[in-house]
């Protein structure tokens, strides 16, 4: 039975501003793979079964809280505010009230470590439990340990303390084993130890690392658990953010390919956390899948396509450079190239939406086609209907949106303008170039264009008129020219001018 004495809790430190990001936005709000930075350590703690997970916030606290709640609905999250950033020990102490009556182990993570794996976190938690130690900390060995606290061991290689670089001697700075900023502590030891932490150091801050020296003197001592440096490293600037994003995407790509997804060029594939892709899907280069997108088995996503919160069924072909958002595409449909499906678009089974076609809140029935240069907004298109090139549903009157309804097996000629609200019945035909404002009954032919008028010889007559006008203008220019002196060139024009 899990009790407050045995249950794992977590504290994620996410209060800092992150000045090296050079941003008005808090560091932990910067996104990679569609999630804020702080989401990743929070998610790893949740995957390990931590309950609750307390996030210590400070800079832009409300925005950080809102972002995490929105991206982790229903998760056992709590929030604590660190009003002043007085050090890591002070930050952890800020979370005490939010943990309530929890007395079990507490794992402590940094909010800027998106590459941490669940199994690495598990190793630290289990190492403390196995050793029955008051504290376990993650350790990594670096060739260039600048900026990190060094782990000082005794002659028996037991961790004795962590010394921050600004407080370290030259000998201590030569140590390559450093603190990775990940801990698991016994709850009772944690709160008693934090009450004793002082700020007598170079930065006048309350260091969480002071707990290592306290644990070393207690029963069980301190346990240092080696972890991969690539996982524990924090993100401090935009270059590191981009590198971390690439690592996450590579991990995701590898997992997908092992599960049967063909990714033609993983280096040019971007996929958010939470996207689901079934086996036998083919992803061409330059594809980006975002949000809650799901791709069904046997579908192909063409080069350069961007799909956001889109559900793609089995056997769908999305041709290159298609952009979709909050849309659904049913089995066997073909979309693209250069199509845009805006929110509320529902493309039915075996329907076709072609090049430079835009849909918004439009529902196309089974086998319906709109293959060229068309806008379908606030529309319902029946099964088997063909919508010709250049067709527009005029859904907005300047104040309200109105719906166009087209029945099954209808034929809409090219360059038609359908002024909503309007209904076109089953099997009806609309002549090319028509502008329609009235309903069209089932099986009817509607023509909404001016009668053609042909004027034979019009081109020649027009050219003759132009030639006559030009000749007149040239004659006027000659008549207004100045006469030569001496009278020999003087004529009527010069006399009129005089």
Explain what you see.
The chain starts with 8 loop residues before the first strand and ends with a helix. The chain is 23% helix and 27% strand. With 498 residues, the protein is α/β, with parallel strands linked by helices. Strand 4 (53-57), helix 2 (61-71) and strand 5 form a beta-alpha-beta unit. It has two domains: 9-232, Spore Coat Polysaccharide Biosynthesis Protein SpsA, Chain A, CATH 3.90.550; 238-446, 3 Solenoid (UDP N-Acetylglucosamine Acyltransferase, domain 1). Helix 7 (187-194) packs across helix 8 (210-216). It is built from twelve helices and 39 strands. Residues 483-498 have low confidence and may be disordered. Strands 13, 14, 16, 17, 19, 20, 22, 23, 25, 26, 28, 30, 33 and 36 form a 14-stranded parallel beta sheet that branches. The longest helix has 22 residues, at 458-479. Keywords: Acyltransferase, Cell shape, Cell wall biogenesis/degradation, Cytoplasm, Magnesium, Metal-binding, Multifunctional enzyme, Nucleotidyltransferase, Peptidoglycan synthesis, Repeat, Transferase. Residues 454-498 are annotated as: Disordered. InterPro entries: Bifunctional_GlmU, GlmU-like, GlmU_C_LbH, Hexapep, Hexapep_transf_CS, MobA-like_NTP_Trfase, Nucleotide-diphossugar_trans, Trimer_LpxA-like_sf. Acetyl-CoA binds at residues 389, 395-396, 414, 432, 449. It is found in: Cytoplasm.
